Amino acid sequence: MTNCVVIDDDPTSIEILSFYVSKTKELFLKASFTDAIEGLNYLVENKGKVDLIFLDIEMPEMNGFEILKHSQYDGALIIISANNENAISAFETNACYYLPKPFTYNQFLRGVEKYREASVKIDPNAYSKDFIFVKDERIYKKILFSDINYCEGKGDYISLKCKSQVYTIKSTIANFLDKLSGNPEFIQVHRSYVINLDYLTDFDNDTAVVSGKIIPIGAKYRDQLKNSVNFL
């Protein structure tokens, strides 16, 4: 069950979203707020208990971006707004979907599907030397370790950058490393990054380039990386 919270100063929008959530399998509305500060306080008091927020950007007293900042919420997020100029800023928050007002149930469902695609979880028993299965609420997805470019830790979540897709998973770097036993091509280079050496193209003392992304190298991991590659 996905625990949802709606924060929007428009009562009509709250009513519509509450109805849509009630119609949608596996969604459960934990709380809704027309007052931004009350919504912020709820998120702070219930940290880790909210799976998905439907959040309006433009509200009096405190906007949606300020709520995210002060609550330190790092879970799944669907941004809602009547102003399309907010779309770019919305995706800078790592929102999985932008829902412009007014919206239909079909648009709402597209946002939920995007959330389900992103919110996969590692199955601790479903892995081997060559691959791992990650699970969303309906299906298991097989990921070959050889397809993973790098892993980035984001609090209680990690992002797996694969050849064709990025998976956001509720897990930690430490938990992911436990699943990599017997895969020496994966090296931790920073407290927030594990890289696949097969995709490493160059590096210096401070940064590594993996599949075109510049990744920081932590001082405590520098020697480990150097000892893992061959030099001429």
Radius of gyration: 20 Å
Taking pLDDT < 50 over at least 5 consecutive residues as the criterion, the unreliable ranges are none
What's the arrangement of strands in the largest beta sheet? 8-7-6-11-10-9-13-12
CATH structural class of the largest domain: Alpha Beta
Summarize model confidence as the mean pLDDT.
85
SS element count, helices:
7
Largest beta-sheet details: 8 strands, mixed
Straight-line distance between termini: 54 Å
Into which percent range does the helicity of residues fall?
25-40%
CATH fold descriptor of the largest domain: Rossmann fold
Q: How many DSSP-defined strands? A: 16
Strand content: 35-45%
Summarize the structure.
InterPro entries: CheY-like_superfamily (IPR011006), LytR-like (IPR046947), LytTR_DNA-bd_dom (IPR007492), Sig_transdc_resp-reg_receiver (IPR001789). With 232 residues, the protein is α/β, with parallel strands linked by helices.
Describe this structure in words.
- The protein has helices spanning 11-23, 36-45, 64-71, 87-91, 105-118, 173-178, 222-226, and strands spanning 2-7, 27-33, 52-56, 76-81, 97-100, 119-127, 131-135, 140-144, 148-154, 157-162, 166-170, 186-190, 193-196, 200-203, 207-210, 213-216.
- The protein has 2 domains: 2-103, Rossmann fold, CATH 3.40.50; 125-226, LytTr DNA-binding domain (OB fold (Dihydrolipoamide Acetyltransferase, E2P), Beta Barrel).
- The strands form 3 sheets. The chain has an 8-stranded mixed beta sheet. The chain has a 5-stranded parallel beta sheet with strand order 2-1-3-4-5. A 3-stranded antiparallel beta sheet has the order 14-15-16, with no helix packed on it.
- By secondary structure, it is of the alpha/beta class.
- It is elongated.
- Strand 4 (76-81), helix 4 (87-91) and strand 5 form a beta-alpha-beta unit.
- The mean pLDDT is 85.
- Residues 131-200 form the HTH LytTR-type domain.
